[in-house]
Design a protein that fits this description.
Elements: H1 7-43, E1 47-54, E2 57-66, E3 75-80, H2 82-94, E4 101-103, E5 109-113, E6 122-127, E7 131-136, E8 144-145, H3 169-183, E9 187-197, E10 204-214, E11 217-218, E12 231-237, E13 240-247, E14 250-256, H4 264-278, E15 283-299, E16 302-320, E17 326-338, E18 344-347
Parallel strand pairs: 2-15
Antiparallel strand pairs: 1-2, 3-14, 3-16, 4-5, 5-6, 6-7, 7-13, 8-9, 9-10, 10-11, 10-12, 12-13, 15-16, 16-17, 17-18
């Protein structure tokens, strides 16, 4: 006589089959998403040249296309990490100043100070957004920045070497990159480097602005609201890093595959259709196109990284005064469209 299988065994078998089916569907979805991204990747050329005039305004596109690690593009949720905060506080404050004072009276920010009595103290501040700022006032230098006309210039790296420093700007940026990567889930590369010297001493420092990236795709410097986004800066003298700040205290909590990636050619068509309504200048020159992540702050301690097509451009405006004298003004912008649905994001 055959025995009937217990119902619990049947239930377990059914659950196992459902889980296998779900995993199979998930794998199929991820494979379809990857195939869609690969198709978009193959359709993109390394450089785009185009020109159009609408309503008396000219759009000139002469730009390389930077895709980064496009095959890893996703939608990422980043959240504040207590573990990263504890590590950075232990390393920079408590390991050097065991009697440091912690002040968490403000619900939005927590501060640590090495000694409230000392004028030249070390100070660290952290917010639930992931922002952390640090300065060692005993090593702070009152210096003047040189070449400030390049302060906001993407890719500018000074050839000047500050007083008392033997490192080149490139070597200094490597020190800064290694330091930031130690405490962050993000990667950092130098975006802009300036030199500063003191008039009253033989010391100086590098001011290093850093661009963040996740899995090989850069993150925009500003958020979709036009506010400061996810980035960092470092001040480095002959005694090392004495000041820094940035969105370091974040951790990925969810990574979602994209259902689609809108082809760049479709986005360019939208740029050409809408630029005359967005810009007031008479000539717009796009000189770089890049796939980046646009950070959106979704709560006090959470960011969403959405892929976006970013067009770096110069807007040329011609203004006339009451006497008929003309003056030309050049403005730099990031003209941004979301890459997952093709909608306009922001002009930054």
């Amino acid at each position: 006589m055959l025995k009937k299988k217990p119902r619990v065994c049947v239930a377990i078998c059914l659950i196992s089959l459902l889980m296998l089916s779900a995993c199979s569907k998930s794998g199929e979805s991820e494979e379809l998403a990857r195939t869609a991204v690969e198709t978009v990747q193959r359709s993109i050329t390394k450089e785009i040249k185009d020109e159009v005039t609408i309503n008396g305004k000219a759009l000139i596109i002469d730009a390389p296309v930077e895709l980064g690690n496009i095959l890893e593009v996703s939608e990422i949720q980043l959240s504040f990490s207590e573990e990263r905060l504890s590590r950075i506080v232990d390393d920079l404050i408590y390991s050097k100043y065991p009697n440091a004072i912690k002040d968490n009276s403000d619900p939005y920010v927590t501060n640590w100070i090495s000694s409230p009595e000392a004028v030249l103290s070390a100070y660290l501040s952290a917010k639930k957004t992931g922002q952390v700022d640090y300065i060692d006032r005993s090593r702070d230098l009152e210096c003047n920045l040189y070449e400030t006309e390049h302060l906001l210039e993407d890719g500018f790296i000074t050839e000047l070497i500050p007083k008392g420093i033997s490192l080149s700007a490139q070597a200094a940026s490597e020190v800064a990159t290694d330091f930031l990567t130690e405490y962050s889930c993000l990667d950092f590369t130098p975006w802009n480097i300036l030199a500063a010297n003191s008039n009253s001493s033989t010391s100086g420092y590098y001011y290093i602005s850093m661009e963040a990236s996740f899995n090989g795709i850069p993150i925009c410097h500003k958020s979709n609201q036009g506010e400061a986004g996810i980035n960092a800066y470092v001040l480095l003298s002959n005694e090392g890093i004495f000041q820094f700040g940035g969105m370091l205290l974040l951790e990925p909590v969810e990574i979602k595959s994209l259902e689609q990636l809108v082809p760049l050619c479709e986005i360019i068509d939208r740029v050409k259709e809408n630029f005359s309504l967005i810009f007031s200048g008479d000539r717009i020159e796009i000189d770089k196109i890049a796939l980046k992540y646009m950070p959106e702050q979704t709560s006090e301690n959470t960011f969403c990284l959405r892929p976006a097509w970013c067009f770096s451009c110069t807007e040329n405006r011609t203004n006339s005064d009451v006497n008929g004298k003309t003056e030309e003004t050049k403005l730099r912008w990031e003209y941004v469209f979301y890459a997952d649905d093709g909608s306009f994001c922001s002009l930054l």
